Amino acid sequence: MSVWEYLYNGFLVALQWQNLIYAFVGVLIGTAVGVLPGIGPMSGVALLIPVTSTLTAGSSAEEAAASAIILLAGVYYGAMYGGSTTSILLNTPGESSSVVTTLDGYQMARQGRAGAALSIAAIGSFVAGIVSLVALVFLAEPLSNLALKFGPAEYFSLMVLGLCAVSGLAGHSMTKALIMTVFGLLLGTIGVDNVSGVARFTFDSPVLYQGLEFLTIAVGLFALGEVFKAILEKEKNEGTIAKVGKIYPSKQDLKQSAAPIARGSLLGFFIGVLPGAGATLASFFSYMMEKRISRHPEKFGKGAIEGVAAPESANNAASGGAMIPMLTLGIPGSGTTAILMGALIMYNVQPGPLLFDEHPQVAWGLIASMFIGNLMLLILNMPLVKIFAKIIDTPSKYLLPIIIAISFFGVYAVQVNTFDLFLLIVCGLMGYLLAKNDFPLAPLVLGLVLGPMIENNMRRALTATGGDWSIFVTHPISLLFLVIAACWILIPLILKWRGKKVLVNEEG
Amino acid sequence: MSRSFDRIASILFILVGVFFIVESRKLSSTAYGSGVGPDLFPMGLGILLILLSIRLIFETFRYPKEKQEGKTLDIKRFAIILFSALLYALLMETLGYVLTTFLFLVVAFQTMERGKWWLSIILAAAFSVGVYYLYVNILKGTLPSFPF
């Protein structure tokens, strides 16, 4: 079958009425998550995994997986849209990837052009979403076919590369990021070993045989951690919300932003595909690029519409690009895609090169639904942006306890035991303390998701050679991956050592 | 960056590493049909974790002088909510989902901000009963029911 036939079948899945509803609910909640300061895309997605798994309980495994991932991905890219709203209206980024948008977006709002800024952000996000999807459609097959030629040694090295890339760019201290990665990998070894059937670190307690549930840890670390932070540190939205004003941008605005949107989309997409470099870096780079090539760089920071269009396109394109390594290689490049991958694994759908052969319904359904979801977001965001701006006012005194209650419900509904509820609270405390002290959480989740797979591939490779470790460096592709992995760790270290400032990616 | 937190965390991570090494020595080192046993991977990771933590301890000596943080933490509010969350988890299976959720939410709402009792009670009741009804009666899931 050709790409077009697969895509057509994907649209058949995505256009089923229940999946349309899931996509709609996903992007709607995603936008709200993006607008609410304090809840990032990672906690939004984590919080909704159990909710979707209960909603899809009645349908067959394949359909349930397709519907769930459609909703969860909707939350992910919806949050990218919503994040710009608070940046522009309140000068407070809803999530880290729209930090740069505050520079010019808020200035535009102060000049009474908030509506134009918001709609350009929405249009830019839409164009970028479509660009990255088209690239995804055409890259998916060749990449999967390439990955199918990989043996266990290559997979092992590729996953090591993924972990190194994320650790190398996460947070301010690489040591801390690596500690979190290794800690995540270690937590992943708890439970019955897949290869030998030996129970490891379980102390004969049956709740541990299955291993620590990924879902509980993700919800605890991200959602509960953020709630605890908000309770302890009494976050308040200060400042007044700017008036939205006229929504539709003028012809002049559109003309000025067309080129930045195109450049931002392409740049963002390529940065998104790279593991470790996510939406935050993409928006940052594209802003700097626009400023550099602009004929009026002095306008930036004073309400230049290019300064809104480019980074908003870039962060959306990056979130689409980040899906590629996750879907085709099974290597999530960021915290949020790691959580999405964990959700797919919960449904027994293993992302990776075989995904497109074994579960075309899930893979192509997701891709098609992203086209539809982006369109929904554009339609939702243009006229309804005034309503979304009201969400900012949601009183946190009601929101925070309800988030705790939702995470309790979600974890209990999936796990049906109280052990996981206590684990949830412990993870929430850990998430707060670690994040507060610059220990990045995304590498931990990534380690937890990839851990069992890394170990399996490592042992399969070593079994084939009878325990000879040289297999990882004698296979050329595997060697290449390991060299790139080493570079990813070493180059920032060398740069830092020579006194250069290294950009880091503070997001999921 | 907090120097003392990072030191304590490093020591805790070293202990975690030691724990995993000690425990994985109890596992068999070979497995049927496999060249490497289930002990190798966790043991290697444990060693790596210890090395990284030691490096972090050394890094803490080079931290710039600590600044006093201006933020005051609302410990009391947090402690009440944490304690009620623990009770919530502990009692959920004995008292049932609706009752514990209702009580937890009322307490948490009131801890966040005193006053408006009626709104707190209505919201908490709507959430707990609504979720229970939706999940158990419509989606046919299981949640601990009432104690009576």
UniProtKB/TrEMBL annotation, chain A:
* Membrane-traversing stretches: 20-49, 61-79, 116-140, 152-171, 177-195, 266-289, 329-350, 362-385, 397-415, 421-450, 471-495
Q: Does the keyword Membrane apply?
A: yes
- Alphabetized Pfam families for the sequence: TctA
Q: Which UniProt keywords apply?
A: Membrane, Transmembrane, Transmembrane helix
The residues covered by the DUF112 domain are: 20-446
The record, for InterPro entries, names: DUF112_TM
Q: What is the name listed in the Swiss-Prot or TrEMBL entry for this protein? A: Putative tricarboxylic transport membrane protein
Which species? Thermoflavimicrobium dichotomicum
UniProtKB/TrEMBL annotation, chain B:
What is the name listed in the Swiss-Prot or TrEMBL entry for this protein?
Answer: Putative tricarboxylic transport membrane protein
**Which Pfam families does the entry link to?**
TctB
The transmembrane residues are 40-58, 78-105, 117-136
- The superkingdom listed in its UniProt entry is Bacteria
* Domain DUF1468, first and last residues per copy: 8-144
Per UniProt, which keywords does this protein have? Membrane, Transmembrane, Transmembrane helix
The keyword DNA-binding is assigned to this record:
no
Key word Transmembrane helix present in the record?
Answer: yes
Q: Which InterPro entries match?
A: DUF1468
